[in-house]
Amino acid sequence: MDRNGNRALFAQAPVGRAVVSLVVPTVISQLITVIYNMADTFFIGQIGDPNQVAAVSLCMPMFVFLTGLANLFGIGGSSLMARSLGAGEVQKAKRAASFSLWTSAGVALLYGVALALLRPVLLPLVGANAETYDFCCQYIFWTITIGAVPTVLNQELAHLVRAEGHSAQASFGMALGGVLNIALDPLFIFPLGLEIAGAAIATMVSNAIATLYFVVLILRKGASTNIAFHPRHYAWRDRIPREVLLVGLPSCLMNLMGVLSNICLNKLMAGYSNAAVAGIGVAKKVDMLSYAVATGMSQGVLPLIGYNYSARNFPRMKAAVRADFLLSFAVALVSTVFLFTCAAPIVRAFIDDAETVRYGQLFQRIICITGPCISVTMLAITVFQSVGKKVQPAILSLLRKGGLDIPFMFLLNAFAGVEGIVWATPIADFGAMLAALLLFVPFWRTLRQEKGARDCGIQS
């Protein structure tokens, strides 16, 4: 699709068709990403060693932080790109993309090196013990120390490509990494006998190949794309760093607080047993399906909302938000019903260990009940990010992860034990949804026609 085609999709195509064309590929890629993240747990579970499953669970927060970095620069950069293109500022869009790419690559590299140096201190803090420490070291070395840069760039490039309207191509790149990981996991784990290290190597290789796909795609587009690799486009002017970082910060904070939340969760669970850690690890992996749907539904329409907001086409922007809300809420409701009713066989598919399955199915049923709440909160966050708001999405991100669930974990652990720890997650999701409605409804009411929108204040 060329630039004129992108403009037609954002500004002229029927709203329903535009939303579906952007959302469906994004959701599919998110689901495949979740499936390939689950693949490590699934195939390692077939070894029958709860310690290796527990090690993956303990390492996952540190790996998920890479997604936070990708969102910081990818969502912030794609929002600024979409708004710049809607305002006709093509060169600013190029500079925004270049700043996002080069800065994120440098930060990811530093993160990988820092984690390699700090793991003797860090791993015991997150719950690793004598039985899981070596497994954690193997997993972190390949997925983060070696794989941090391609993991971040793979996800970030998908955001930037999607900002130009190429949702299907962005989703294909994400899906490519997922499919490769699913295919390589059993090869490295079983025939080569590498076990948990094999799963980590498969993840690193898959992300590297997916990143290469995006690089080739962008280079082949040449002048028809606004995503620029050349360092001459790297710039700190035009408030680009501020816009990218502040708009992308809420999504990064959500991941960062999610890391802290999972660390607290694993630490508390480790006080009971490794089977409890493995059970919550499986349950959280499965519940990522609901989160993936909500994320895909919201992030898919980000460029459509941002473009029309900057172009002052507020009726079209509002129509896109309405259509996306109805679709995402319905899909999230169906996902919740499925995960609740099929909890036992789903968990058993990962590991056939009676105690782990007992914990896992209980935890999954508790966690999944607020799936529709997540869809509401994520859409509100995305709308605020699309129009350049900074304060509202930051508040909602902190509430959903860290602000509510961590205090409730410790409180409910004291009163209700292991089951109470898990109930903190749905309580936090419901509270974040209420806060999202309180912030979003007034903004929505003030967003009338062009004159009304100018009066409501574009920046926070």
From TrEMBL:
Leader peptide range in chain numbering: none
Claim: Nuclease is one of the keywords in the record: no
Main location: membrane
Domain of life: Bacteria
A GO MF label: antiporter activity
Localization per record: Cell membrane
Keywords from the named record: Antibiotic resistance, Cell membrane, Membrane, Transmembrane, Transmembrane helix, Transport
GO cellular component terms given for this protein: plasma membrane
Family: Belongs to the multi antimicrobial extrusion (MATE) (TC 2.A.66.1) family. MepA subfamily.
Protein name, as recorded: Multidrug export protein MepA
Biological source species: Candidatus Alectryocaccomicrobium excrementavium
